[in-house]
């Protein structure tokens, strides 16, 4: 294979960092952080000391974008050296690029909505303090901890204070869709890992399909590239809950028409 091994290593390193952030290493990928950012933009406070959740969301988005851009740059360089192989490798990693792209899109929507609410309703929730894990003393990423659910639980109290009991006021119909987008995010670390596992499963399927369709020479090059990426990911030290095995050896030999002597 003619592709520079350093490019494959760069791609693997970038993918690993995307994996790490996407599985919840940074809090800005979670639903709760996005809802809290919108609540704080309207004067509300989360926890006794408060927190800048929008800053966390934007910091996470920047981290994802930097790592995603590095992966795309490596893919572009691979494609420049071996176009056919580059196209196949890009198709293989597309599920992870799409997942990270979704996180970026939703972060932008949340940031834009927070900017609008800060201008139009900066004191709407002034004096309202919500818990970090619900209305009790516990702290956690649960359904009860979501700002929308805490607001629902305080509906009567908020209404009595003249506050509409909803995160996005009805006077902002153009912003209502951001809640739908936020619902696409993981609630907690377990859901984040599950989303990443789904992307990895799609990568495995795409690899199998691409390998089966490729010519003998194409199969050898694609296999070498994938093994290089996978080996680099393992060597770099991934601690993902989902094992990083893009395709097992027996399946690879079957697709390449090589007898599996282990069976």
Please, could you describe this protein's structure?
There is one protein chain. With 263 residues, the protein is mostly helical. It has one domain (5-256). The chain has helices spanning 5-25, 31-41, 53-81, 83-120, 147-153, 155-160, 177-182, 189-213, 216-236, 249-256, and strands at residues 45-46, 129-130. The chain has a two-stranded parallel ribbon with strand order 1-2. The protein starts with a helix and ends in a 7-residue tail after the last helix. 34% of the residues are buried.
List keywords for this structure.
263 residues, mainly alpha, disordered C terminus
Percentage of residues in DSSP E strands: under 5%
Rg from Cα: 23 Å
Structural class: mainly alpha
Order of helices and strands: HHEHHEHHHHHH
For the largest beta-sheet, the strand count, sense and barrel status come to: 2 strands, parallel
Number of strands: 2
Mean pLDDT across every amino acid position:
80
Question: Outline, from the CA principal axes?
Answer: elongated
What is the overall number of helices?
10
Uncertain segments of ≥5 residues (pLDDT<50)?
Answer: 134-139, 236-263
Q: What is the helical fraction, as a range of percent?
A: 55-70%
């Amino acid at each position: 294979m003619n592709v520079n091994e350093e490019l494959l290593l760069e791609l693997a390193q970038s993918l690993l960092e995307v994996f790490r952030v996407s599985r919840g290493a940074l809090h800005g990928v979670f639903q709760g952080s996005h809802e809290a950012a919108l609540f704080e933009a309207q004067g509300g406070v989360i926890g006794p000391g408060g927190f800048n959740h929008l800053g966390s969301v934007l910091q996470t988005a920047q981290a994802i974008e930097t790592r995603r851009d590095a992966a795309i740059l490596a893919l572009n360089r691979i494609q420049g050296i071996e176009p056919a192989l580059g196209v196949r490798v890009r198709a293989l990693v597309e599920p992870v690029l799409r997942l990270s792209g979704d996180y970026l899109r939703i972060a932008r929507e949340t940031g834009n909505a927070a900017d609008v609410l800060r201008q139009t309703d900066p004191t709407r929730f002034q004096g309202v303090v919500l818990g970090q894990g619900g209305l009790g003393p516990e702290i956690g990423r649960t359904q009860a901890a979501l700002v929308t659910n805490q607001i629902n639980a305080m509906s009567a109290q908020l209404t009595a204070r003249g506050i509409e009991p909803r995160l996005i006021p009805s006077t902002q119909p153009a912003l209502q869709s951001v809640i739908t987008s936020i619902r696409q995010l993981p609630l907690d670390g377990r859901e984040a890992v599950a989303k990443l596992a789904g992307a990895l499963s799609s990568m495995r399927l795409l690899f199998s399909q691409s390998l089966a369709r490729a010519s003998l020479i194409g199969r050898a090059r694609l296999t070498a590239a994938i093994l290089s990426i996978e080996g680099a990911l393992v060597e770099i030290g991934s601690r993902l809950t989902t094992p990083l095995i893009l395709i097992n050896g027996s399946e690879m030999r079957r697709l390449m028409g090589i007898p599996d002597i282990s069976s």
